[in-house]
Amino acid sequence: MEKYYLNYSGRRLTFTIPPGWNVITEADRAPAPVAADAAAEITRALDNPIGSHKLEEIVKPGMEVVLLFDDLQRPTPAHLAIPQVLDRLNAAGVPDSRVTAVCACGTHPVLTEEQMAAKVGAEAAGRLSGRLVSHDAKSPENITIGRTHRGTLVELNRQVALADLVVGIGECMPHPSAGYGGGYKIVMPGVASYRSVAEHHFALMRNRNSAVSLLDGNPFWGEIVDAGRLSRLAFKLDFVINEKKQVIRAFAGHPEAEQRAAAGFAESLYVMRLPHQADITITSAAPLEIGVQSTKALHMGSGATRSGGVVVWVAAQKEAGPILPLIKEMAAAKSASEVHRDFVDGRIADHLKPFGISYIMQIVHFKDFVEKQRIVHVTEGLTAEQVAMMGMEYSMDLQKTVNTLAAQFPRADVAIFPSGGNIIPRIG
Predict the structure, then answer these.
(1) pTM of the full predicted structure?
(2) What CATH topology corresponds to 3-30+275-427?
(3) Which residue of 52, 120, 142, 209 could cross-link 254, Cys pair, CB 3.0 to 4.6 Å?
């Protein structure tokens, strides 16, 4: 029998499949070439903005500028980008003293000064001393600036709402609900209030068009665009970055135009085409194997698998701490729809409130997965009891799992994703 493999904890995990199984994909994606010089790539992007004049041509002397940057959970090289942005603002007549940098941490915990300094680097922290601020989604000073065309409240960080010019720095990577990150996402949820983010995320998270790699027709993304336009975010610098935190390419310009360009480029790297959904999908969490990142492969694997099919999710879970609260919530008897309704109605358990809303959303998504498909979790870092709490089947041996499924499904169309953490399955 022919051998196949998954990438697993820095090595290849090989296995064979029965002759009655038809493999519809087994391709692995080659790593994308990285920028030889990340700082030079930033300069190139800023010199060639998309759908916009250069930043230094937009800003006017005397303006109060707010510069948005994302938090430590994302690998955006703010330490390289912010000094270049400040230099261009200076050249246009805006000194550092008229720039405030706001960490767009969304509903994540507020960052300390030390954490922000670690994110932006020593040079930027020195130039912006006393003007590094972390957004607080629960602050009473957040300001209502309007509503989206669907009626979603847009309540933003006070400094952002009152700025003369807003500039953002972030990343554009596939996102399970917004299609792609980047663009106006630095505003919603980045600097939006908790109630704005909750209203937006919970209302639209299960819409069938709130999907990875989809922008046009995606209501989740459309509401983000509405909020971003209201915020007057004028210029954005976004990065496409690999799992090693290396810059692949940078895009700059008008927030919508540059995001579309960045998303198109990311799609060329990550989309994997399938003729149809698989009966069985065997996917590795690699290269995103740590904590909540490991769940991305399950999101993508579920999307590649028909309703009633089987997803074999292979993840070592050697640093499983971040997903343990998620496991505990999965053990509750409520259905995905019941949990979703609780969230929409504002009934969020106190022990969940310290977590960001995107994390809380995972509870509903995971319940959706196990209600739709049979999930077999091949792992060495979780116990059988913990896996069962999630409504999944436990295994420590991929080949034994395949052999068991072969006896139950003598014929099946099978998708194999050797690096399921960085692919986007597209059907048809």
Answers:
(1) 0.93
(2) 2-enoyl-CoA Hydratase; Chain A, domain 1 (3.90.226)
(3) 52
